[in-house]
Amino acid sequence: MPTVSTIIEEARLTAHALAEYAGGLINPTVRLGVTGLTRAGKTVFMTALVHNLLHGGRLPVFEALSSGRVARARLAPQPDDAVPRFDYEAHVQGLIDERRWPESTRNISELRLVIDYQSGRGRARSLTLDIVDYPGEWLLDLPLIEKSYAAWSAETLALSRQAPRAQLAAAWHAHLATTKPADREDEQTALAAARLFTEYLKACRDERYALSLLPPGRFLMPGDLAGSPALTFAPLKLPGEGRAPSGSLWGMMERRYDAYKDVVVRPFFHDHFARLDRQIVLVDTLATFNAGPAALRDLEGALTAILDCFRAGRRSWLSNMFRPRIDRILFAATKADHVHHVNHDRLERILGRMTERAVSRAQFAGATIDVVALAAVRATREALVARGRERLPSILGIPAAGETAGRESFDGETEAAMFPGDLPDDPEPLFSRETGVFKGLATADAGEADYRFLRFRPPAAETNPAGHPVLPHIRLDRALQFLLGDRLA
Ligand code: GDP
């Protein structure tokens, strides 16, 4: 039975969808979501994408542009009054003039572009492209909408007892052992539990573990809600059934969990997620390899949860009546410039295999899914470097100031060559459940990771035939062709 609030939500969504539908008839619009977990590369991707479109970057696979049908792309005023504008100009200036990476995404932001082009039949047309950049942590919150506090508590606790999470959860678990759900509600107990639970989530996110599945997202990125009751709760070890006794800690935590859904998760779903047409999910796959098999398994869990969100996002028939649902999802392994080009296809295959498994686990059907390994900004070049008699395919780049490798510390000015190692050619053994080990990537078990990737400084911009600086990239054009090609046909 739909609740009153569900009916009101549906009505609001429908009114919004109708208005957008009417607008879309006159002026075709694509809303493209750009997401990924912290430091996946969202800000860099969005900056590079817009810069390449505005200034005619080298995008041979993006047919509309390479065939000369795009007359021009221009920025237009930000359409949504309540969403911050993506600070494109500041990001470009940092990247190109100062060769430093932009400030990462901490909040949702948006940018509108209008692309004037000639259709395949030679007619002059315009496509409005709204690009919405938002933290992937928010996306991973969506499954909470349909999950009770009891179910979430049980799931979160079970996960926190697995390696390597268990050791990171020790302090929180110790506190949990001192509380009983039926204890009287108490602000100090709730504060302590929330703090220890948040510290556990933060430790999981650390690059040594690089775990992905860490809801609730705002515990890691609280924004303006820091310290509010909606963020001051934690799982409890609950009895199998029954209701929270009145005035209990259990009741208090449950109320706040529900408030989190009302204040944070549902508004995000309606105001942003349900309005997207296309989605790119950026994944720092190499950082996950670097952290080892547990991180890889965790990432697969996160991809499944993400696909579940897209399924959930399509359930509302009212909104679907007026709006084409998300019909294309691209999963992109970012920072591919950290490995030699022979590994780009391998990186793509591994993410592809992981996505396939997530698709079958999420019983996902509908949208077209593709996978690409890309570097939105290519910070390295390739060379064969002699080591003894061997010539190793290596990458050259300027490690960022303060980066270290072994005993060497870099100053941000000096170029270095490194051989980052090869990814396995066949992704299949990585997923072998019989052995229970991600073979070939057992580096974390050895205590030392092979895939130790330095942060490089952004590259010097190249110049296009019109004399404008453009940023080098890897396969950004393939991503654009998949995400927008058909809309510019
Ligand atoms: P966000 O948190 O998803 O917005 O992540 P950012 O876009 O801020 O990227 C995080 C960091 O990853 C940047 O500061 C860069 O160091 C690195 N990075 C992102 N994209 C690329 C890329 O295409 N190539 C390289 N070499 N580094 C990248």
As laid out across the biggest beta sheet, the strand order is 2-3-4-1-5-6-7
CATH class annotation of the largest domain: Alpha Beta
Shape: globular
Low-pLDDT stretches: 313-324, 433-451
What's the Cα radius of gyration? 24 Å
Approximate strand percentage: 15-25%
* CATH H level, superfamily name of the largest domain: P-loop containing nucleotide triphosphate hydrolases
Small molecules bound in the structure, each named once: guanosine-5'-diphosphate
Helix/strand-derived category reads alpha/beta
The tally of beta strands, per DSSP, is 14
Mean pLDDT across all amino acids: 86
Helix content: 25-40%
Total count of helical runs of at least 4 residues: 16
Q: Terminal Cα separation, in Å?
A: 43 Å
In the CATH hierarchy, what is the architecture of the largest domain at level 2? 3-Layer(aba) Sandwich
Sheet with the most strands, sense and barrel status: 7 strands, mixed
Q: Look up the CATH topology of the largest domain.
A: Rossmann fold
Number of separate domains: 3
Secondary structure elements and pairings:
Layout: H1 4-26, E1 29-36, H2 42-54, H3 63-66, E2 70-76, H4 88-97, E3 109-118, E4 124-133, H5 136-139, H6 149-160, H7 165-168, H8 170-176, H9 187-205, H10 217-220, H11 249-271, E5 278-283, H12 285-291, H13 293-312, H14 317-322, E6 328-333, H15 344-361, E7 368-373, E8 381-387, E9 390-397, E10 404-405, E11 408-409, E12 416-418, E13 462-463, E14 469-470, H16 476-484
Helix pairs in contact: 8-9, 12-13, 13-15
The protein binds guanosine-5'-diphosphate.
